[in-house]
Queue: 3 jobs
Job 1
Amino acid sequence: MSEAADGNPKVKALVYVASFLLEEGESTGELAGKFPGNELGPALRPVPVGGPDGQTVHDLYIEQEKFREVFAADVPEEVAALLAVTQRPIVADALEGRATKAAWKTIPSWNLVTVRDLAVPAQSQRFMAERARSHTVEVDASHAVTVSQPGAVARWIDEAARATAS
C-alpha cells in the first residue's frame, strides 16, 4: 500500500489494519520477528511452485491445524476452518522483499493494532505506528480482525476518511 500510495495526490489517508508500516529498506519478515510473540513462522508450510521466470518459488500456507490458534483465535471454529482451507498463500520472497518507499512519511496514517495478534505481534505494530506518528487504536483481536470485528475496522476506516475529507 505504501509503495502504491507514495506520491499519489489522490491518496489522503492510509489505514493499516494489523499490518506493516515499513520504512525504506525494511522487510515484513524482518519486522514480524523484531519483537517477541510471532508464532506464524513455525506454522507456515512451504509448497514449491513454478515462478513467472520458470524458477521454483515457495508459496507459504498456514498449517490448517494451527490456523485458528495462530491467525484467527477470536473467530468461530467453523469460520476459522473455512478460512484455513480457502486461504491464499503468500510467496516466501514477499516476506523478504524490502520496501523502497514509505508513504506514511507524507500521508497521514491510521493504524489499528490487534493486541492478540500472533502473526504481527502487537509490540511490532505499536513500534511501527509510533515511528509513523500514526493515529492508533487498539482492538482486542487476532490477526483476523476484519472477520472477528468488522465493525471496529469499518469505524476506523470511516474515521480516517472523515478526518481527511476535503
Job 2
Amino acid sequence: MTARPERQPAPRILDAAALAAVAARLRRRVVELVAPTGQGYVQQGLGAADLFAVLYFAELRLDPSDPDWADRDRLLLSTAHNTAIFYATLAERGLVDTAELANYCRDGSPFEVNASERLGTVIEATCGSLGQGLSVAIGMALSARRRGAASRIYVILGDGELQEGQVWEAALLAGSLGLDNLCLLIDDNRMQVEGHVDTVVKLEPIAQKWAAFGWAQENVDGHDIPALLVALERARAASGQPTCLVVRTLPGKGVSALEGILAHNLKLPPDVAAMALASLAQSEGEP
C-alpha cells in the first residue's frame, strides 16, 4: 500500500512587502466593518493589523480548504472583543466567507462583537471573559505535547489583561511545564477601557516578569514586520520553555488623525470613517 503523504499546510508569505500589503487591506476592512455601527474596536484593530498579517499569512500552519485539520496550529484571541481585525483576517485568509462580514454585529449573526464558537471551529475557544485565554491555551498545548502532535498554540492577550490574577497563575504553570509549543503574544498598546494602562495598574517591566516565570521573552516592535518574523522564528526554536513576545503596537496605526488616541471603543461617524479610508488609501499610494 502506498504511504499517504504528509499534509502540507498552505504556503507561507515571508516577503515583508507582501505582508505589509496584506496588513493594509486588513486596516481598510477594519474601518469598513465598524463604520455601519458608528463605533467599535477600530484603534485596536488598526494597531494589530501587522501582527495579524504575520501570524495568519507567515506563521500559522493552516489549511483554509480544511479548517478542521487536526494538526493545524491554534490561535486564541483572549481579547475576544477585538473582532474587527480578527474577522477581517479570517476572511482575507479564506477561513470565513467575506460576504458574511456584512452581518457583523447584526442581531442573530455569528459574527458577534465578541468572537465565539457560534462562528465554528475557526474560533478555537470563546474567550469573552478577559484573562482566561492563556489558561485555555495551556490546556491545548499540553494536550498537543502528550499526543505528540506537531501543532503549536498561540494566544493573544491585551496588556490590560495582565491585571488579571488568573494570567499569572497560568504563566507559572506553563513555565513549570516547559511548554515550548506555546507562544504568547501581548498586544502592548498601553490602552484599556479606563485609558492608559499605567493609570490603572502599572505593568512594567513586562518582559522581565515573564522571564521570572520561566518563559523565553522578547520585546518586539509590532509594526516592524521583519522583526516580527524573526521573533516568531526564535519562538519556534525555543526548547524547554514557552515564549512570550511583548508586541508594542500603536492604536490607530495607519490613520494619522487617529494614531495614539486611546479610545477603547472609538466613535466612528460617517465623516470620520470616510477620512480614515481616504487616509489609508493615500498611504497605499492610491489616487
Job 3
Amino acid sequence: MSVVCLVVGPEEHGVVEVALDQHRALARSASDAAPVHLVRLAERPGSEALLEAVRAAPPGPVLVHVTDKLFGRGPEEAADALVALAGERRLVVALHDLPQASDGAVNHPRRAAAYRRVAQAAAAVVVASRHEERLLRACWPGDGPDGLDVVVVPLPVPVLAGGLAQAAGAPADPDAPLQAVAVLGYLYPGKGHDAVVDALDVLPPGVGLLAWGRPSPGHEDLVEALREQAGALGRTAEVTGWVPVEDLPGLLRSPVVPVAPHAHLSASGSINAWVAAGRRPLVPRSDYADELLERTPGCVLVYDDLPGALARAWADPASTWAAPGAPTGPTVEETAAQVRAVLDGLA
C-alpha cells in the first residue's frame, strides 16, 4: 500500500520540521510494494488547492501533520480544508498545538470546534503525548466521544546538525562558569520569556536572557517589550532571530542555563533539541513534564519556583548536563515505525 505524506507550511516551522523528518524516515524504510510519496506545499493552501495537490498524488492514505494556523486564516477555514480532503482520501492526522484554556475565552472554543471536526473526519488520529490526547478529548462536551481511537506517538529526539547525535554527553568541563540564561524557540505570548526575565534578579549582575529564535508572525512587538522589561530591571534580553540549524549544536552546548519556560506545553520540539545536545533544561511542572520524565527519567529539571531553579542551576552548572550515554527518548525511525503501523492498519 502506497502512502502520501502531505506537508504544508514553511520549512522552519516546528510542525513542518517534524513532518519532513518523519517523511524521510518513512521513505527510508519503504518497500517497492509500499512506496512513500511526498506532496509539499510551502504556502497555506485554500481548500481547492489542497484537493488538487492531493488528487495528483498516487492512491493511498494521506498522512498530514496539522496545526490549524498552517491550513487556514482561522481555525474554521483550516477545518473546512481538511474535512474536504477527508471526503476524498483516508486521512491520518497527526495533530499538534492542541486547543487548551490558555488559548483564551474566544479562541479556545473556536479551535476546539475545528480540531473536533478534523478528528471526526479522519480515518485515524495521532497526537504527541497522553496530555495532548486528554486535550483532544476535552474538545467534546462531557467526557468526549465514544469510539475515538487516538494513538500517542511522541515527538522524536533529533540528531542535530553536524552529526551531533543524541546523548552527546557533557562537555570537557561541565562545571565551567555559566554566562547567561537561554530559551530556544519562537517568541509569542505565554512562551515564558517574560517570566525568565523577572527571575533574573537571583543571578549575578550582568547576567541576561538569550532568546534564540524569532517572534511568531504578528508578535514582533514582543521583541522590544522584552528588551524594555529587562532594561527596567537592569538586565539585558537579546533576541537573535532565526537560528540556522547548523548553529544549534554550538549554542545548545554553550555555558548557559537552558530553560523551556512555557507553562502550557503539551509537546515540545525545543525541549527535545536541548535533550539531543546532552542538556537537561529547566521546565515548569506539568502533566507533560511528568510524562517526559516517565518516558526518559532525568531528561529535564522540573521546577515549581523558577527563581529558585535558576539559582540552583547557576550554583551547580553540571546539573544542567546529562550523564554521557544517558537515554534521550525515541528516534525518528522509532516514531516513524509507530506511524507506519497506524497507516498499515488502514489497509
